[in-house]
Amino acid sequence: MLKNYLKISWRNLLRNKTYTAINVAGLALSMTCGILIFILVSFNLSFDKFHKNGDRIYRLVTEAHRDNISYVSSVPPALGSAIRRDYTFAEAVARIVNLGDQTITVGQGAQAKPFKEADGINFAEASYFNIFNFPLVAGSVSPEKNTVVLTERVAKKYFGNENPIGKTLNLDRGVLLTVTGILKDLPPNTDQKGEVFAAYQTLEATNDFFVKDDSWGGIGSAMQCFVRLKPGVNLSQIEAEMDAYVPKFRPKSKNVHHYKLQPLAEVHFDGRYGGAMEKKTLWVLSLIGAFILITACVNFINLATAQALKRGKEVGVRKVLGSRPAQLFWQFILETTLIVMVGMGLAIVLAFILLPYENTLFKSDMSMASVNVGFLAALGVTVILLAGAYPGLIMAGFRPTAALKGKITQQQIGGFNMRRGLIITQFAISQVLITGMLVIALQMRYTNGGELGFNKDAVLIVAMGLDSTGSPIKAFKNSLAVMPGVEKVTACYTAPSARGGWSTNVRFDNHAEDEAFLISVKSADDQYLSAFGLEVLAGRNLYPSDTLKEFLVNETFVRKLNITNDNQILGKRLSINGGHMTAPIVGVIRDFHDESFHSDINPVCIGSGWGQYSEYAVKIDMRKASTVIPAIGKVWDNLYPGQIFDYQFLDDQIASFYRTETTMLRLAQVFTLIALGIGCMGLYGLVMFMAAQKTKEVGIRKVLGSTVGQIVWLFGREYARLIVIAFVLSVPVTWWLMSRWLQDFKYHITLGPLYFAATLVLIFAIAFVTVGYQSVRAALVNPVKSLRSE
């Protein structure tokens, strides 16, 4: 029986090649999207799930309450030591500091090789490896300072096939590290980055702020503190007890801290604390995948019901010969299954080919291994039932007498209303995707090309080398200042807009207390304003100085003080960083975006002092970039021997602020094109069947004088009405979705009717091209031939 069903099904599919090809292509594309989205979602949901007792691992984070609430993925360094000393609710407490721009040198003399790790170098307490499941394959983890453990990959990179245990690494500033252990390579699904783990106490030689037990005054974003709690402890009680540290160690600070316990399972997803992938993004992607799958199933249903008219006599004969409705239903389900299985085979091949591009887009290391048999079976059964059940029921319900006489009506195959509803659904989904893509694209153009308040073009950011005197700073600047192709050069802490800046408390004009807001510090020399095109509104620029002698502030700072005249603050003293940096204000500069467009402009101050600088900003002539960048590298090698010349263009740094949005835009473009492609294939097939059914009608109309345009309109008017209905239904949904998305930006485009009108025009154009081709073909057929064939 099954063998006969398979033969019949296969014969029917081969007989209707266009129908089969359209359905296979549509289902293959939609299932490819489904598979790739499933890989992405399952990969992100698996982050840090492999740790033993992961449900009891938490990260300590800070809610900082001042004039607004900010969320910091770290805590004061002293908090970890205090919890370990004062409480017993934790089985283990571990601090880890990740520092970038560190150079590790392997070997000595002429054999020395410098390395910079892209994910930075970790300084971790030994208890970190008791909390997290990063197993050793050789050696041990030592709590003693100046020891280090490496992953297998890094150990092989540094030492080749030699045994690395006992070998010595040279860290910046001459700190020697002895290798005591080798870790198994970190899996790709962890947020714990870095593959070099030095003992935490090693920081005494490089940055003792993270080591001191009295470091309560500030928070270093490079540090994270983790705890593994004992079973059954009360989280809210722990957080309440930690609040006691604030009045004890920060009694005068207006920046009120609330220390929270963030579950390890939420670290990857909580955008407030820098989570890499918010769950709502995964839900949106899953929803888009479902929409595309529904679009393909709608195509299948529409084409199957349209083709049912052609198969009426076949069904009638089968019923007369004794076939029961259930047999006819399962016959059609088997045909659907064959199409779905072929489509799924193609989808798996396409997903395998496209996965490397997905990994590049998300900067990840996903694999096809997560696509298990259970998921594929569930996907296949879902598509078979969605696409095949309704048409199968329709054909199984034909009356044999009507089928044999060829008198099956549209109502008997589901009617126009059913098909209209499905087409409207398809058009509505396409219009939501198109409008969403358009809004995201225009917002990204706004953020990338919007007015930042400074010049970001052709600016090279060079990470500053290490020295103990500061003399290379002057030498580097002086060498570049006379170099052909270099227009400006400045030494600074960060560019005007940067990720991970320095915010601190501020006191104005010898006030008795700190102000109610924090200030962002941009330490820089006197060339900073000219290099970035910043404008002085009142007062003057900084005078050249190696130490802090004066400050510049921005307009927002003046407004925060409720001062209306910029000149009123000139000459007044400004004290920051707990009073350790004090100088008069000599100028007010025009506001610039110091962070991304997601955030408001912060109060900013700029003061000189080479000890605070971390990078050079070099404005170059891009026409000479191919020669000037190597020339800068040569100057670097002379002044910073043995250190790696590392640079990045500022506009690339700023673009990285919107990496998530850029990724979403690319995905939206791909998914929209796929949805439109599937929809166009469905329209093409429907109009083709429609033209076959209306052959006689078209011939009569032409004989009676109808023009080609009128014949084309005969086919197109129905779809025009459906497009308008779908547009009306899609507008409120799209408006709500994109308004919510734009709320994540403090500075964004205005969502207006023009975007929706553009979508409607585009949909009409696509539908016209798709429907018009078959319509014109039908209209150009010789009416004599049409009538004779009928």
Give the topology.
Layout: H1 2-15, H2 17-45, E1 57-65, E2 69-72, H3 77-86, E3 90-99, E4 104-106, E5 113-115, E6 121-124, H4 128-131, E7 136-139, E8 147-151, H5 152-159, E9 168-171, E10 175-183, E11 196-199, E12 223-229, H6 235-242, H7 245-249, E13 256-263, H8 264-267, H9 279-308, H10 312-320, H11 325-362, H12 373-396, H13 400-404, H14 415-449, E14 459-463, H15 471-481, E15 486-492, E16 502-508, E17 518-521, H16 528-532, E18 536-539, E19 551-554, H17 555-560, E20 573-576, E21 581-589, E22 604-607, E23 615-620, H18 625-639, E24 647-649, H19 650-655, H20 659-693, H21 695-703, H22 708-742, H23 753-780, H24 783-789
Parallel strand pairs: 6-11, 8-10, 17-22, 19-21
Antiparallel strand pairs: 1-2, 1-12, 1-13, 3-6, 3-12, 4-5, 4-9, 7-10, 8-11, 9-10, 14-23, 14-24, 15-23, 16-17, 16-20, 18-21, 19-22, 20-21
Structural descriptors:
24 helices, 790 residues, alpha+beta, six-stranded mixed β-barrel, globular, 13-stranded mixed β-sheet
In one word, what is the shape? globular
| Percent of sequence in beta strands | 15-25%
Average predicted confidence as pLDDT: 84
State the helical fraction: 40-55%
The Rg value, from CA coordinates, equals: 34 Å
The unreliable regions are: 408-416
Spatial gap, N to C terminus = 37 Å
Biggest sheet overview? 13 strands, mixed
Number of helices: 24
The total count of strands amounts to: 24
Helix vs. strand class = alpha+beta
Question: Can you describe this structure?
Answer:
By secondary structure, the protein is an alpha+beta fold. Strands 1, 2, 3, 4, 5, 6, 7, 8, 9, 10, 11, 12 and 13 form a 13-stranded mixed sheet that branches. A hairpin with a 4-residue loop joins strand 20 (573-576) and strand 21 (581-589). The longest helix is centred in the middle third of the chain and has 38 residues, at 325-362. Residues 408-416 have low confidence and may be disordered.
